[in-house]
Amino acid sequence: MFKLQAILSYKYIFNGCNILLYIVLTAKYALNLISLVVDIMEKTCTDALPLTMNSSEKQETICIFGTGDFGRSLGFKMIQCGYSVVFGSRNPQMSSLLPNGAEVLSYSEAAQNSDIIIVAIHREHYDFLTELAEVLNGKILVDVSNNLKINQYPESNAEYLAQLVPGTRVVKAFNTVSAWALQSGALDASRQVFACGNDSKAKQRVMDIVRTLGLTPLDQGSLMAAKEIENYPLQLFPMWRFPIYLSAVLCIFLFFYCVVREVIYPYVYKKKDETFRMAISIPNRVFPIAALTLLALVYLPGVIAAILQLYRGTKYRRFPDWLDHWMLCRKQLGLIALGFAFLHVLYTLVIPIRYYVRWKLRNITVTQIANKDNPLSTSSAWHSDSYLALGILGFFLFVLLGITSLPSVSNTVNWREFRFVQSKLGYLTLILCTAHTLAYGGKRFLSPSTLRWCLPSAYVLALIIPCTMLVIKFILIMPCIDTTLTRIRQGWERNSKISSALNGKTDI
To answer: What is the pLDDT of residue 372?
Structure first.
């Protein structure tokens, strides 16, 4: 019997070694195959997108005025891509740290070597260009400068440069790309380069250079767009400012509201120290309320816009500026709301390990052992499970909305699919999250016993905007109203005669 067990043991060990050897060999072959595929892809990409020009082609010479950080970085990138670079400097002998292969000359000598000159100097130092007006006549000047403040000057730097040297063709470009992005290969930063200019041929030549550097040129039209292009890098989260301010004000208000109800009130009437609630309990009330409120604010401007269109009887009139800005910020509001929802989930997961919760559970257990009479309440079990199920489903759809709003995902779906997810599933998410909050309140909803200094529970505040918005939306989708709204959005007007008479006053 012992020998039989030993033989079986050896057999199992032998089979195990064979399986392990097979797994190792399979992994080795898989790694070799992956390495071969990667090598083929790299060779294909290298052949398809060469980093430099063909050596048989004649190198084009580019002149760069200025040897600062940006000028050096741009020159280094151009040399990598096969261009011949000549730097213009006021002190050619003092210039250092320049890329290998670049030549440094005076401004006048450098300008004579190329018909494309990149002006990488600040606007305050443009005056010397008037002395080179004869040399620069007919050449392309690429203005890459930025200002310190938005609308710092009456005209853009590019327009000022065109006025200063009228015989040149000025193109605005490269001001949205940083020196660091050029040094790192522009793979970790924005690759878009806005370009504008009055001369289409000059602008096209500059855009060809942008493509050769591995960047993406975007034609913005004439030189009148230069001011907007110069203001673009100075803007700090322009579409996020309103959502962030609104979220901050909402969270601060809700936090102090909960502190008054759950910390100050017990201390005044019961002399209890409940300040520890400000670390976990109160934030775990603030975050879900903020998430639900912001989610409702994502869809509220669409409802307001529909009411305005019904009231006006036409779609050919602009919405108020505040409503336009609100609608443009809906994506940012939704992403901030999703962040608050994530925080609510994380704070909820740590509830079982809190000292206060463990202490409370021990006391409940001791009380149950002493009483020995605590039957299961089926209604309470249903209420608890329904509340949790609604929260899980709502959070899942919330995450799905956030994923589909990412450019890498939204670019893979058509407009109807994107609208279905963001509109239909969005309203379903709002309904589930609102139902989750209603189920949380249960029988305590608006109960007099929950009032403290006549202040209702915080979750009641979270239901005001979502419930109001859902009721109005339900009215708008009724057939008698939805039919009229659909006709208006398809171009129908309630009073076409009056609309045609006021055509000069309406903003289409």
So the answer is: 60
3-class DSSP string for 236-292:
CCCCCHHHHHHHHHHHHHHHHHHHHHHHHHHHHHHCCCCHHHHCCCCHHHHHHHHHH
8 Å CB contact between 117 and 139: yes
Q: Which of 53, 70, 87 is nearest to 173 (CA)?
A: 70
CB 174 within 8 A of CB 186: no
Give me the helix-helix angle, 321-328 and 330-349, nearest 10°: 50
Cα-to-chain-centroid distance, residue 347: 25
Write out the two tokens for 391: 């929260």
CB atoms under 10 Å from CB of 102, counted, come to: 19
Separation of first and last alpha carbons in the chain: 96
How far apart CA 64 and CA 75 sit, in angstroms, is 7
pLDDT digits (tens, 9 = 90+) for 168-184: 999 999 998 888 878 77
Per the CB < 8 A criterion, the answer to whether 70 and 144 are in contact is yes
Q: How many CB atoms lie within 10 A of CB 233?
A: 15
With contact defined as beta carbons under 8 Å apart, do 150 and 234 qualify?
yes
Q: Three-state DSSP class for 99?
A: coil
Q: Tell me the β-bridge partners of 104.
A: 87
Whether 89 and 67 have beta carbons less than 8 Å apart is answered as yes
What is the DSSP secondary-structure string of 207-232? HHHHHHTT-EEEE--SGGGHHHHHHG
pTM of this structure: 0.67
Rounded Cα distance between 95 and 437, Å, is 67
pLDDT 10s digits, 71-94: 988 998 899 888 999 999 888 777
Instruction: Mention every residue, 6+ apart, whose C-beta is less than 8 A from residue 328.
Output: 239
How many Cβ atoms sit within 10 Å of the Cβ of residue 159?
Answer: 20
The 3 state secondary structure assigned to 86-97 is: EEECCCCCCCCC
Token pair for residue 84? 């011949």
Alpha-carbon distance of 357 to 475, in angstroms, equals: 44
Residues contacting residue 287 through CB under 8 Å, at least 6 positions apart? 251, 340, 341, 343, 344, 347
The predicted model gives 181-200 an average pLDDT of: 77
